[in-house]
Amino acid sequence: MTVKVLGISASPRAGGNSDLLLHQALAGAESANAQVEYLRLCDFNIAPCIECNSCFKTGRCQIEDDYQLLMKKMLDTDRLIFATPIFFMTVCAQAKILIDRCQCLWAHKYVLKKPLIETKSRDRRAMVIAVGGTKSKKMFDSIRLTMKYYLDVLDMKYAANLFVNKMEEPGQIEKHPNALKEAFRLGAELVTTENPLPEKPIDIELT
Ligand SMILES: Cc1cc2nc3c(=O)[nH]c(=O)nc-3n(C[C@H](O)[C@H](O)[C@H](O)COP(=O)(O)O)c2cc1C
Fold it and tell me: Quick one: 117 exposed, middle or buried, by C-beta within 10 A (0-12, 13-18, 19+)?
């Protein structure tokens, strides 16, 4: 059966560093015979969550915009590769808006205690790509935590991280000695792995 891989690029910069890494990861997935789809959040109209809590009763979001389409894609896919730049030590705003709108999935699961039918008993895995302009000790801590909870509501196993420091100029990543290759390798691995997943995500941090 063909594995479906969805790549979500959150950066406002097309051809930016995280975007280029995502393209490589998707190329890796494709080389492992996956069916890949790439999208940029900037091309979609998604409003932020307004905490109306109507999803606590219905399990769905009452704001009608492109989130409904994105939600279907996130629930339908077998693999997700989510790429974001670091903005103020966390995901960028475009990513955070999408993640917050998944509150309806959280309500569906944890308030209404209903399973997400589309994801039931499927092997779903995700990989996170993040790029920052500087280097500091706790730079990716916030991303790790946010993505852990986001992937949990999507019923996805958190398989791997690829984090890269000290990338500021758009496209600078192309000069990195091995970041693009690592993205390709991890993208292929995300599709092909037959080994049981490690308890913690594979964590690759490059400078
Ligand atoms: C609003 C804003 C906030 C940023 N905050 C951080 C930060 O907290 N830490 C950091 O290392 N880089 C920060 N950066 C730099 C970006 O992470 C860096 O330029 C990265 O390469 C952008 O990724 P992209 O090319 O995929 O968009 C920030 C950039 C912007 C525009």
Answer: exposed
